[in-house]
Every structure is written in structure tokens, then in C-alpha cells.
Design brief:
With 291 residues, this protein is of the alpha/beta class. It has helices spanning 8-15, 29-45, 76-87, 102-105, 124-127, 157-160, 172-181, 193-201, 212-222, 255-268, 271-280; strands at residues 52-56, 95-99, 115-116, 130-138, 141-146, 165-168, 188-190, 207-211, 232-237, 244-250.
Length: 291
């Protein structure tokens, strides 16, 4: 999970390549029948019949959303949500966005949305309280630090243990620090990612661990000096541990099965790969380092 400040210049650059339409084709008749069946019954599964209610946090950050407007179809997660709707024959006008804070999304109990799309990684613990879709994005974690920090050049597995890390409570980045890096000094935990960023800028911590696309954006466009010049860098990304983002539903929500069918079609026909290249491609050319 991640939160970033939106820079209008970057938003405009990415927004110029907006996906205006998604054509759904399937590799076989069985897939087509599954989508057709789901399209017929999806309305009966929606929390508000005739409307697909999609949640995300506020603000909604680049590159997952652009200009803090989830309903504009720009940014990877916004585009994925509309691609799912298109696959299930839901009109764009019938998609309604609502706000759901990240750390409230996986609390047990009824939900005010059909699904939440907010860089929420699947974990067994979260899955006890909510239902997740199949993956719509496979995640690597990465390190962000100030450009002049020793960690930029000294980041062998042994050296990584010697730094002070910080992260937002409840994130998989924090879990990665504790379970994979295992620093000698306990990681500092913050209520929001913005607080962790401030701690990095003021050198209270040496580094943040965060998903690769978000980390690249954070290093290049968020952590800057008064002249707007970047003062941070993305040190590297770690090998995959199988972490992935899933759409989050209330526990046992029957709509999840049809959304899985739609995601399967989008993966099979190359739509998800195309959207990742369009919205996330510039963020992912980061060297791999070992924890």
C-alpha cells in the first residue's frame, strides 16, 4: 500500500496517454459464456442495484490515479476498475466512486462499497476478515532514501540491517522490513505514509520500504527541495515474495467470483499488461538488490 503527493506536471504527462476504451475478447467460448453469465447477474450482487460502487482512499495518488480524480479513468487502478466494469457490461456512468481509508478497508464487517481498489496487498491475516480477488498487480518492495545517504552505496544484506527504517502502520512495506530485512534497530511506525516521508526528509529515519512504482514516484517527484529538485533516490527493489494487490470485498461477497472472471479475461487478452505498461512502465526499471 502507498500514498504519494500528486504533482500536476506528472499527472498531465501520464494523463495524455489515457486508455479511452478497452475491448474485451476471450480466448475461448467458455470464458465468453462465463463473462456473459456474470454480466447478466452482476446487478443483483451490487450493494446498490444498477450501480457498481468502487472505493479508494483520499487523496488518491499517482501513478494509481491521476489528479486525485478516481473517476477520470486515468492511472492504473482507475483504468483497471473501468476495464472490469466494461468486461462485465457495466456502463461507465454506472460506476460510482466512494472514499474508504486504507486502514479501515480490511476491518471485519459490512462494507459500503462493492470492492475497494487501493494498493491493498493480499495477506492471510486480512483474508480472514475480507475477501480478495485474484491479483491485478504483482508487487515488489523497494527502498527509498535520501540521495546522500550511505545506504545508496552500502546495501548488502548485512549492511541493510544497520539502518533505521520507518513505514506506515499495517503496510506490507513495514512487514517486509520486520520479516525480511530484520534491522538491528526496530522500525519506526507512523500513522500515515506522509509522516514517514517527513521523518525521512528530516533524517529521523534512513529509509522507507514501499512498492516499486510508488517508490520511484516518491523518489523522483515527491521528496524535493525548495526548488523542486529531487533529493531522494530509489536504492533498488527486492526480489518478489509473491506479494500482490487484490480488489477487496466484504467477506463472502458473491460479486468477487465474477470480478475474478473479468480479471482473468483482462489478463488473458493482454489488457492488464497493456495498462501496466501505459501507467506503470516508467516506474519499474529499478535494479534488484537482496534483503
Amino acid at each position: 500500500m502507498a500514498m504519494r503527493s500528486v504533482r500536476l506536471a506528472l499527472s498531465a504527462m501520464l494523463g495524455a496517454t489515457m486508455v479511452t476504451a478497452v475491448t474485451i475478447t476471450t480466448a475461448g467460448a467458455s470464458s465468453a459464456r462465463s463473462l456473459a453469465t456474470c454480466a447478466k447477474k452482476v446487478s443483483s450482487e451490487e450493494i446498490h442495484k444498477g450501480t457498481l460502487t468502487v472505493a479508494t482512499d483520499s487523496p488518491a495518488y499517482t501513478p494509481w490515479f491521476i489528479s486525485n480524480k478516481p473517476d477520470n479513468g486515468k492511472g492504473y487502478e482507475s483504468a483497471v476498475a473501468y476495464a472490469i466494469a466494461h468486461a462485465l457490461r457495466i456502463k461507465r456512468a454506472d460506476v460510482n466512486w466512494v472514499v474508504e481509508p486504507f486502514d479501515s478497508s480490511y476491518i471485519p464487517g459490512p462494507k459500503s462499497f462493492d470492492f475497494d481498489i487501493n494498493e491493498i496487498s493480499y495477506t492471510p491475516a486480512r483474508a480472514k476478515a475480507v475477501t480478495f480477488s485474484v491479483s491485478y498487480y504483482d508487487v515488489n518492495q523497494s527502498i527509498v532514501a535520501l540521495a546522500k545517504s550511505p545506504i545508496v552505496k552500502k546495501h548488502t544484506p548485512k549492511e541493510l540491517k544497520s539502518y533505521v527504517y520507518g513505514d506506515q502502520i499495517g503496510t506490507t512495506g513495514l512487514a517486509y522490513i520486520n520479516n525480511q530485512i530484520k534491522p538491528t534497530t526496530p522500525a519506526k511506525v507512523f500513522t500515515t505514509l506522509d509522516q514517514a516521508v517527513l521523518a525521512l526528509e528530516t533524517k529521523l529515519i534512513d529509509a522507507i520500504v514501499i512498492d516499486t512504482p510508488t517508490g520511484q514516484y516518491m523518489a523522483q517527484d515527491q521528496i524535493t527541495n525548495k526548488k523542486g529538485k529531487s533529493i531522494a533516490t530509489q536504492v533498488g527493489q527486492f526480489p518478489s515474495t509473491g506479494e500482490h494487490y487484490g480488489l477487496l470485498f466484504s467477506k463472502g461477497n458473491r460479486l468477487a467470483a465474477c470480478v475474478d472472471v473479468a480479471l482473468g479475461a483482462l489478463k488473458k487478452n493482454g489488457t492488464l499488461a497493456a495498462l501496466q505498461k501505459k501507467w506503470l512502465g516508467i516506474y519499474t526499471s529499478v535494479p534488484v538488490i537482496q534483503p
